[in-house]
Amino acid sequence: MEGEIQRFIMVWASAMLALCYCHTIGRITKPGKSRFLAFLPVVLLFLYLPLNLHAVFLVGPTSFFLSWLAPFRILLFAAGKGPLSSTSPALSLQQFLLVSCLPIKIRRNKPDPSLKTHKSPLNYSVKSLIFATAVPIFQNKEKINPNLIKLSYCVYLYCALELFLAMIAAMARAWLGVEFEPQFNEPYLATSIQDFWGRRWNLMVTSTLHATVYDPVRKVSTRVFGSKLAPLPAVVATFLVSGLMHELIFFYIGRKPPNWELTCFFVLHGRHRAFRNIRPSSARIEVDFLPKSLDIKVCTSDVLLVAR
């Protein structure tokens, strides 16, 4: 374990040095091809660094921060976009280092009233208590209905993820003294698959994928298919990339070849999301292609198909 901790320190020290390099390059170059080429070795380095770790509790967060969030945000920075490209005011070195690889985004505009920027201690206390029941539940899982066990996995995953990311954001907020945009928006209150993925679940990843995948693909698709159909390939491409990144994270953790189940899961959800609602760029209303009852059946069948 001592050797693993030393490797963990070396991995993050290397990452911080690489991000300092990106910060410096960003100050002396303009967005475009030259900045992209300068950042490309850093992106490749971040994909390599988690391979030096083996402990799940270290490689899991490290791969998420360094191999998922950081490369996408650095590529956005190369194009002069994203949270690292703020000019009002420009990010300090400390802010740049944290925003590059942590699931945080400094709030610049007036907060959306529909999003809770700060959750009450009671909210986190309840989720902590729910997560604490994981041990007795799984110790006696043979006596519990298998479907309830599967449901409990989802609940515990959500509670653990939100509590962990909230802790990271709280420490970063205390260090930087700034406010961040919310990371989750009570996903258990989602009323549809669009509401869940687009406005409630893991909002930092959602916004990052929207800027790096959805927007470019939609821009190209608009020229090919027109503005009405452009969201179709853009949505599917976004979910495809999300699935591939999930496969990558699980590869880092388990060091086993991917079975592509996660990719299939996200592609199916992307297909469902794309055909469920299309919002033409010139319209303010959503066009429903599927009745509500069929929408629920298709979504459920997608989940069950992949779960099998």
Automatic annotation (TrEMBL):
Q: Which GO terms describe its molecular function?
A: O-acyltransferase activity
* Any matching Pfam family: MBOAT_2
The UniProt keyword set, sorted, is: Acyltransferase, Lipid metabolism, Membrane, Transferase, Transmembrane, Transmembrane helix
Where is the chain membrane-spanning? 6-24, 36-59, 153-176, 232-253
Q: Which GO terms describe its biological process?
A: lipid metabolic process
Q: How does it sit in the membrane?
A: Multi-pass membrane protein
Q: Where in the cell is it found?
A: Membrane
Which Gene Ontology cellular component annotation is one that this UniProt entry carries?
membrane
Entry-linked InterPro entries? Wax_synthase, Wax_synthase_dom
Q: Which residues form the Wax synthase domain?
A: 181-267
Q: Which family does it belong to?
A: Belongs to the wax synthase family.
Q: What is this protein called?
A: Acyl-CoA--sterol O-acyltransferase 1-like
